[in-house]
Amino acid sequence: MAHASYILISFLLVVVLNVAKGQPLVPALFIFGDSVVDVGNNNDLLTIVKANFPPYGRDFSNHSSTGRFCNGKLATDYTAENLGFTSYPPAYLNLNVKGRNLLNGANFASAASGYYDPTAQLYHTIPLSQQLEHYKESQNILVGIVGQSNASSIVSGAIHLVSAGNSDFIQNYYINPLLYKLYSADQFSDILMQHYSTFIQNLYALGARRIGVTTLPPMGCLPAAITLFGSGSNECVVRLNTDAVNFNKKLNTTSQSLQKSLSGLKLVILDIYQPLYDLVTKPSENGFSEARKACCGTGLLETSILCNKESIGTCANASEYVFWDGFHPSEAANKVLSGELLAAGISLIS
């Protein structure tokens, strides 16, 4: 442990020195995935899965509801700051002018999407395969601005973050009798792994060399999951957490074999399961007072359009809550998680 903290301290010194010079540690940050990292790509889609209205964003700069499923910053916003960026990767679909805005990266994530394309199709959002098409388009725009060789070095030096899988289970598999009867959770996670593997290979083929992938969270501890699947109990749903742990093991194994087969690839799994589980099961040790109920509304179920400015019971101080809505961590929890991401992701930068 001492060795790990020594590495972290020396790394943070490098960060401080670089950031003091106004230089981010990597040329760009590209983000793919679901609602945990979506910063507004769903705002103009014909979907119910969006967050561009109060009280979302009430603790964000200018109190603006950008489309983030949070009261403030996402873990990836903190990651961008930790890497030395002075702005966050913009929501690709929201950019009116896509030119120079893309020099430091972009965010392609879409709430309710996943590795499994039909999940996004259920909610009329953007599946990962389509996010990849947007990424290709953004690369062509970059080439137009800085030329082929500069664009290639931005892409190969950039960090690519991927957060998916949660919606595939919670917003599709568990509530979709067609899938649930057809596949065991184990079989469904095998299907997701095939899609994951293809996605990483496609990203690699487009020049990505530094990729960080988050694990599934403890799905059974999300307030809405306890309400929906907890059979009246107030505890984390063991079955869902077991599915997440099994998925995460497969994610590690699959990623190791991808790392071996794709030369020059740095593929790092960023564990959010354990840090979030610790926040939920030991809130007071981490400075939180409430881990079962979310801040918005009753805190037991609401997310997206159900979490709105009319929601009765919304808490005054979200920083005491681990969860902002029924599915998503609060800004305060995201800050803790981003520290864990940074520590886990050091090898992507070095």
TrEMBL record:
CDD domains: SGNH_plant_lipase_like. Keywords: Signal. InterPro entries: GDSL, GDSL_lipolytic_enzyme, SGNH_hydro_sf, SGNH_plant_lipase-like. GO terms for molecular function: hydrolase activity, acting on ester bonds. It comes from the Eukaryota. Residues 1-22 form the signal peptide. Belongs to the 'GDSL' lipolytic enzyme family. This is GDSL esterase/lipase. It comes from Vigna angularis var. angularis.
